[in-house]
Design a protein that fits this description.
Length: 366
C-alpha cells in the first residue's frame, strides 16, 4: 500500500505532481482561458462585494492560509486576515454579514476549525471550505467550497495536502481577482500558463532527493534549525520548520527573514543551520543581504534558490536549486526540498516519520 516506498510520507511527497494536477483538473485550462470553480460562480456576488476575507485553520493548513493571504491581497486586492482557529473562536471576534470566512482543513474534522466556522456562521458570514476529506464535518458545515484532490493522506505530517491546498487557494485568488476586475488579463493569463507547468516543475524538484539526502546526513545531529523566507516564501519557512520539528524532534523556528535581526540573530553561531528560501523574486536582493548577515555570524547556510542563480552559491554552504516560476507560485516548489529534508533527517535519526510521537492525524480535541 506504500507503493514501494518505505514510508507513507515519502510516497505522499512523491505523489505531489499528481495531487496538484488533480486539484487543478477541470478548474484550469490555460489554453482556453478556462478558470472555473463552481462554488465561486454560485456565490459570485459575495466574492465581488466582500470587504474582507477571514481565513481560519490550524497547523500546516494555517500556513496554506498565510500563502493565500499573500495571493488574495496581491491579486484580488481584498484585505485578508489569517487566524488560528483556536484563538479566533475564543476572543469574541468581529464578524459582519458580508464577510467571507475560508476554512482550510485536510481532515475536515479539526475541532477548533469546526467551532470557529460555526461561530462565524452564527454571525452571518459566508463560509467557504477547502477540505480534503469528502463529506467531513467541516465540509458539511460550510456554505460552499472547493475540495483539494490530494487523495488520502496517511502520514501524520502533512505534505501533499498542503500543496493541494495552496493549489486550490491560488486558483481561488485568481478567480476572485477576475470577478473583481483587479487583475490584468495578461497577468492572469501568465499565471494560468505558469500554474499548468507546476506539476512538471514539482517532478523536477523531486529529483533533488539524492542531493538532499547528502545534506541531511551532514545536519542530522543539529540541535536547532532556523528557517527564513520573505513574501510568498515566509509561510514556507514556517512550514519547513514545522515539518522538521514534528517528525525529527529537532527544535526549529521559521521566521520572516527581515525579523531575524530583531532577536533570532542572537542564536546564530557556527552550530546553527539556517535554511534560507532565496528564490529570484521581488525580495531577492533583500534576502541576499540577510544571507550575508547569517554568514557574518558563521551560521551554516542551506539556500533554496532559483535554477541558475550565480550569486548565492558563493555565499551559502549548500545550494538547492528549484525551477523558476511566477513569484506567486514559488511556495509550491520551494516547499518540496524542505519536506524531503525533514523526512531524511527524521529517518536518519531513527524516528517514526509516519506516526510521530504525541501527534494525531485528526485533532478532534479542543
Ligand atoms: C502538520 C499537521 C498539523 C495539521 C493540523 C490541521 O503536518 O499535520 O499541523 O495541519 O492539525 O489539520 P487539518 O488540516 O486536518 O485541519
Amino acid at each position: 500500500e506504500k507503493g514501494g516506498y518505505p514510508h507513507f510520507m515519502l510516497k505522499e511527497i512523491f505523489e505531489q505532481p499528481r495531487s496538484i494536477l488533480d486539484s487543478m483538473r477541470g478548474r484550469l485550462v490555460a489554453e482556453n482561458s478556462h478558470l472555473v470553480m463552481a462554488s465561486v460562480i454560485e456565490f459570485e456576488n459575495k466574492f465581488k462585494n466582500a470587504d474582507r476575507i477571514l481565513i481560519v485553520a490550524c497547523g500546516t493548513s494555517w500556513h496554506a492560509g498565510l500563502v493565500a493571504e499573500y495571493l488574495i491581497e496581491e491579486f484580488a486586492r481584498v484585505p485578508v486576515e489569517v487566524e488560528y482557529a483556536s484563538e479566533f473562536r475564543y476572543r469574541n471576534p468581529i464578524i459582519k454579514e458580508g464577510d467571507i470566512v475560508i476554512a482550510i482543513s485536510q481532515s475536515g474534522e479539526t475541532a477548533d476549525t469546526l467551532a470557529a466556522i460555526e461561530l462565524a456562521k452564527s454571525k452571518g458570514a459566508m463560509i467557504f471550505g477547502v477540505c480534503n476529506v469528502v463529506g467531513s464535518s467541516i465540509a458539511r458545515a460550510t456554505d460552499a467550497g472547493a475540495y483539494t484532490h490530494a487523495g488520502p493522506e496517511i502520514g501524520v505530517a502533512s505534505t501533499k495536502a498542503f500543496t493541494a491546498q495552496v493549489t486550490v487557494l491560488t486558483l481561488l485568488a485568481m478567480m476572485i481577482a477576475e470577478k473583481r476586475g483587479t487583475i490584468e488579463t495578461s497577468t492572469l493569463r501568465q499565471l494560468m500558463l505558469e500554474m499548468e507547468q507546476i506539476p512538471t516543475k514539482v517532478e523536477k524538484a523531486l529529483q533533488l532527493d539524492t542531493e538532499i539526502k547528502v545534506i541531511s546526513e551532514i545536519f542530522k545531529d543539529a540541535a536547532n534549525f532556523l528557517y527564513l523566507g520573505r513574501g510568498f516564501n515566509f509561510p514556507v519557512a514556517l512550514e519547513g520548520a514545522l515539518k522538521l520539528k514534528e517528525i525529527s524532534y529537532i527544535h526549529a523556528e521559521g521566521y520572516p527573514a527581515a525579523e531575524m535581526k530583531h532577536g533570532p540573530i542572537a542564536l546564530i553561531d557556527a552550530n546553527m543551520p539556517v535554511v534560507v528560501i532565496a528564490t529570484k523574486d521581488s525580495s531577492y536582493e533583500k534576502i541576499v543581504s540577510n544571507i550575508q548577515e547569517v554568514k557574518a555570524r558563521k551560521g551554516r547556510i542551506i539556500a533554496i534558490v532559483t535554477e541558475g542563480d550565480a550569486v548565492i552559491p558563493d555565499m551559502a554552504e549548500f545550494v538547492i536549486e528549484v525551477p523558476d516560476t511566477h513569484e506567486a507560485l514559488t511556495p509550491l516548489l520551494s516547499v518540496i526540498p524542505l519536506q524531503l529534508l525533514s523526512y531524511h533527517i527524521a529517518v536518519m535519526r531513527g524516528c517514526n516519520v509516519d506516526q510521530p510521537r504525541n501527534l494525531a492525524k485528526s485533532v478532534t480535541v479542543e
